[in-house]
Write a structure and sequence with these properties.
Length: 283
């Protein structure tokens, strides 16, 4: 059994980008820049945003955090985005989700210039992903999972993959990226029947349901590859959607929480920001 070390792999990716960036920066005369907008004071969001800014510092990028009040109007939030769209020191813009109820998320995401949408959530980038146009940005979490498969030489061709969850930011794009790898993908949601049977047949399981210990030993077959995208806080402790203790006994590969998919998500954000910076330089 191999524990997929997302932390180490993300470090490796960040080191490479740091190198390339420091060379480019000398030529270009400015750093790559990421702007993060955070609305309200959701404690989990605060942690994730802090980790993203830390990663920027780690690779020598410029970063700015724009903290806005929970009660901000959609109009005022849109005008903040417009400013960043026009700011030449900003290559990537990220609006931390979820947003408060009174704000239309899709409207906000699509107000970000597609060329700066390093989350890969903009309609244009989703379309590019769908047809395989490489000029777009891939959503960070699914892209990070694919990177893990590649690094550990896990071949997906012809494999039965079960994706649990169909969110716009994980489950749906994950399914598409797996299709590109010629996997046979089944995507489940809360209405799915006989989940346990489906799990027993899967060669690869990607758990992104947001439900602690949803995947148990009794559900999986010997040698299964398990990717845990869940991040749940139970009694103040961080845990995934997989019962790691037990499932790791049967798995051939498994990701831990923390230290698995989370750090990879951040590495892909940095990678996308660097891609945007490069694309702007080449224009
Ligand atoms: N516009 C937007 N883009 C996002 O990419 C986005 C978002 N909104 N909203 C929320 C989710 C969640 N997400 C995580 C990022 C890093 C860790 C991470 O660093 N996890 C660490 C542990 C962090 C901890 O201590 O909680 C780990 O798994 O090792 C987790 C989750 C990005 N998201």
């Amino acid at each position: 059994m191999t524990i997929i070390d997302g932390k180490a792999l993300s470090e490796k990716i960040l080191r490479e980008i740091e190198q390339e960036h420091s060379e480019l920066e000398k030529k270009v005369g400015r750093k790559a820049g990421l702007a993060v907008i955070i609305v309200g004071d959701n404690p989990a969001s605060q942690i994730y945003v802090r980790n993203k800014i830390k990663a920027c510092e780690r690779v020598g990028f410029h970063s700015e955090t724009i903290r806005l009040d929970e009660n901000i109007t959609e109009e005022n939030l849109l005008s903040e985005i417009k400013k960043l769209n026009n700011n030449n020191n900003v290559d990537g813009i990220l609006v931390q989700l979820p947003l408060p109820e009174h704000i239309d998320e899709l409207n906000i995401i699509n107000a970000i210039s597609a060329e700066k949408d390093v989350d890969g959530f903009h309609t244009t980038n989703i379309g590019k992903m769908m047809i395989g146009d490489k000029s777009g940005f891939l959503p960070c979490t699914p892209a990070g999972v694919i990177q893990m498969f590649e690094e550990y030489n896990i071949d997906l061709k012809g494999k039965d993959v079960l994706v649990i969850g169909q969110s716009n930011i994980v489950g749906k794009p994950m399914t598409l990226l797996l299709m590109r790898k010629h996997a046979t993908v089944q995507t489940c949601n809360s209405k799915t029947k006989n989940l346990s049977e489906k799990l027993q047949r899967a060669d690869v399981v990607i758990a992104a349901a947001g439900y602690p210990k949803l995947v148990k030993t009794t559900d999986v077959k010997e040698g299964v590859v398990v990717i845990d995208v869940g991040i749940n806080r139970v009694d103040g402790k961080l845990c995934g959607d997989v019962d790691f203790e037990e499932v790791s006994k049967k798995a051939s590969f498994i990701t831990p929480v923390p230290g698995g998919v989370g750090p990879m998500t951040i590495a892909m954000l940095i990678k996308n920001t660097f891609k945007s910076y490069n694309q702007k330089m080449n224009k």
